[in-house]
Amino acid sequence: MAPILDIKNLYKNYGAVEILKDINVAIEPGDFLVLVGPSGCGKSTLLNCIAGLEPITSGTLSIGGQDMTHVSPKDRDIAMVFQSYALYPTMSVAKNITFGMKVRGVDAATQERKLKEVASQLQIEQLLHRRPGQLSGGQRQRVAMGRALVRDPKLFLFDEPLSNLDAKLRVEMRSEIKKLHQNLGATMVYVTHDQIEAMTLATKIVVLKGGVVQQIGTPAEIYNNPANLFVADFMGSPAMNLIPAKTRQNGSGTEVEISRGDGSAIVLKDSHSRDLPEDVILGLRPEDIAEAGFRAGQDVQQAQCMIEMVEPAGADTFVVSELGGKQVTARLHAETSARAGAMLDLAFDLGKVSYFAPGTGERLN
Amino acid sequence: MTDFTQPHTQAGAPSAAKGINWTHLALRWLLFTLLGLFALFYLMPLFVMVTTSLKSLDEIRTGSLIALPREVTFDAWRTAWSGTCTGVQCEGLRPYFWNSVIMTVPAVILATMLGAMNGYVIAQWRFKGANLIFSLMLFGCFIPFQVVLLPMARMLGIMGLAGSIPGLIVVHVIYGIGFTTLFFRNYYVTIPAELTKAAKVDGAGFFRIFWSIFLPLSLPIVVVTVIWQFTNIWNDFLFGVSFSQAGTQPVTVALNNIVNSTTGVKEYNVDMAAAIIAALPTLLVYVVAGKYFIRGLTAGSVKG
Description:
By secondary structure, chain A is α+β, with helices and mostly antiparallel strands. Chain A contains eight helices and 20 strands. Chain A has helices at residues 43-51, 93-103, 108-122, 137-149, 167-184, 195-201, 219-224, 229-234, and strands spanning 5-14, 17-27, 32-36, 58-63, 66-67, 78-81, 155-159, 188-192, 204-209, 212-217, 241-250, 253-259, 265-270, 279-284, 289-291, 300-312, 316-323, 326-333, 343-349, 354-356.
């Protein structure tokens, strides 16, 4: 199938400042693409470029197989939901939703029918005569979505739509957006700085930093095989442990040496990786370090570590130990016997390990 | 809080607490008396004007300036409106009053509309040099009237509008644009840019967004602008006297001519009535729209 959105070699400059550098992204119909990155990484600018609200400095952009590089927003067959919702304050909810159709000269009967459909879909029928000022944040969010849905566009664009909601509502709306995506089979591009939103919603994630694409992949690929230190650190909460280590070739595998807080070293054997440089940064997610005896498998290696801090979090208990000069977090089960200041046998799952080059931050394995 | 203060009042003398209340009350009264006196001071001239305009000329000559009229007569008002002489003509203020109306109303409407459009462009459709243009317009607000008199006269001559009411309208619109643009720009700058973006994605163009989204939001600032422009243009004397000729003079110029006429007896009651008539429209505009004026001046953000 032809990609519904195809961005090739896109550059965006403001004066002499390069905001976006050589962006190449393509998505298939039905995809949920999430652009994620820290603030100022250019993700919203990229979304505005897709919408046509910002001109592109160079490169091409096509939607539905047609070149849209220089087409105005209204002719791109897109709908957009904004962070501040951007509802028209003087219009009723119904008028907000039908404004786009009115501007495009859709007949009144069709407007009415589509309004009813969308209102019942989003359960906002009882709000249609109110003004945006009389609605709560969550209700405004629904109306903003309604305004996009009613258009039935090729592409839905979301610009951090949940960041103005409180935590509980955010989770609710998140699953509702996900349901909407599944029910409609629509193609969506979604901007967020929240990596949990990215993980839960996306079929495809683009991680951006400083206007440069760091990695494109499915949530699982991004989570399990981060392309560099930035992605490893940015995606996942608590963040991936990034531990400086030394490696030695040992037969068909590698021995990894990590110094402990007291100066002694632990040595782990990785039977899969080879030809690593001597100095590496070892990346291991907190859930890939468990209490000894609770994790089995041929790649699991045990080592005794000094526990410095225990943080019970209900379902899990996090423990912190100093390894390689870094605070390393392990995710243990809730009923662990770990105590701060005591030694504990930890099980490291080397089947899940990532190696990064300390200088460039690029992935090595 | 009360728990902490209670022991204090019980321990200290109760009369002391009472004394504080008295001082407080006395200060209140002093304040109100002072404010009342100021109000009286400011209202005095108006009082004299109104009472004098209702007196006959005889009574003015014999009575005291601040006395109430013994016999209320509206003769002076009638004369001021339709009989008194400005130079050689004796038609009263009426024709000049209408001159002012047909000058002020179009000038206010045009300047407000242009200002709204300018403000909308400068605030929401940023373009290269927008700030420079806005600064230049702002600068225009501070150019003294006298400086432009001669160039303006020349320009009106070239346009064939010298001495005409349309000419005065042009002058006032040009002078008003700076202020009206400033008002609207500052108002529209508080409206989130995402609103324009949303409307663009919805398919609306430049004028559609202005009409359907921005103008309906603008009532408070429109009222402010209209009051400001109306007051300034109606009360203007310098442009009125410079760029008009017999028959096209606005009411301010006519009032001056009435009061400064040196033929015959000085009719103070007619002068007063004429002055009040000339000032009434601006007073009326403020009374009718004043509520919105305050609201508009303090309006900061647009929520929604």
